[in-house]
Amino acid sequence: MSQGKSSEWRFWYAQHKGTLLAAGLFVVMFAIYVSNHPAGFTPNVVQTASNKATLLAFVAMAQCFVVITGGIDLSAGMILILSNCLASWLVVGTPFQTGIGIAAVLLAGLGCGALNGLIIIFGRLQPIVTTIATSAIFFGLALLLRPTPGGAVNETLADVFTSKLFGIFPTSLIVLAATILLIWIPFSRSTLGRAAYAAGSAENAAYMSGMPLKSAKFTAYALGGLLSSIGGLYLTFFSYTGEAAYASGNAYTLYSIAAVVLGGVALSGGRGSAIGAVFGALAFRTIGDLLFVFDFDPLWQPLFQGVVLMLAISIGCFGLARVRNRLEWFQ
User: Which GO terms describe its molecular function (predicted)?
Assistant: First the structure.
């Protein structure tokens, strides 16, 4: 019995090692940040840090859904930008109009992700090529909506989603946790979720086993678009406006890839968790906060982000260097 429990714990640890590493890294860095912040560990400090990290966390979750299938989504940042521009037109007016606007933005993000999935699955194109092309399409649509920055948003709603619940808990973190509970956990434990992991681990074997690979991939891409659109909504809530910012879209795409790697998600597919990707995003954003609190030159930020990322990847690769077969990950 004790050997069985020990084996279960080893299996659980192997599955969640990347998530634990990212969580530990974030906790250490955030503890250093708040201990050196002039205001200390206060609700306002936590709220500000949470709001800054939420955008990347949603896009990192979106990227994770795709990466576990063995693909990659280079349009995730542009879906966020398109959703931001669309929200600056639609998420205004009465509560009913605002609700309809939010639904329209989320459906647009879902549709963008679904389009990626359909082209990749039925067009049999490589994900990296497909999403480069669709990212240009999504940015073009955003530019049509907002050739210059502008628009508005329901400020009352925006303040609710970016404030603190009961004056203590950042609402953005609560929404992030709710998204994990309502989207990621049901998906990861479903037949489609297991098929998505199988597609990234050993697609040929999964196909021979009769797993619903096409449905799993389509769902992963569609949900990835939905999550990116939630990030776009939050960008609108923070800025009160919409902007077709090409540089920001590319930055969020690249940072989302860095966050999933930092969170222990294997870029080869079949391994990792959206929870790890979220902690990876939180850790990645905390690097900038550390540089601010220690009054470093902002020009150093990319260097420090790269160093921390490389160290985290290197630690995660120590065990993988001895792996000859992916099945050994869980032995």
Answer: transmembrane transporter activity
- At 242, give phi and psi (nearest 5°): -125, 145
- The residue-averaged pLDDT of 146-166 equals 88
User: How do the domains of the chain map onto residue ranges?
Assistant: 15-320
The CATH label, of 3.80.10, 1.10.3470, 1.25.40, 2.30.170, for the domain at 15-320 is: 1.10.3470
CB contact at 8 A, 268 and 70: yes
Q: Tell me, what's the pLDDT at 329?
A: 45
Query: Cα(96)–Cα(94) distance, rounded to whole angstroms?
Result: 5
pLDDT digits (tens, 9 = 90+) for 38-66: 877 788 888 888 888 899 999 999 999 99
Q: Token pair 């659109």 is at which residue?
A: 229
Q: Which of 33, 17, 15, 22 is nearest to 308 (CA)?
A: 22
pLDDT at 23: 85
At 149, list the tokens: 């920055």
| C-alpha angle 21-177-76 in degrees, rounded to nearest 5 | 80
- Sign of the torsion formed by the C-alpha atoms of 245, 160, 182 and 46: positive
Distances (CA, A) of 322 to 6, 69, 158, 316: 22, 23, 49, 12
d(CA 158, CA 179): 18
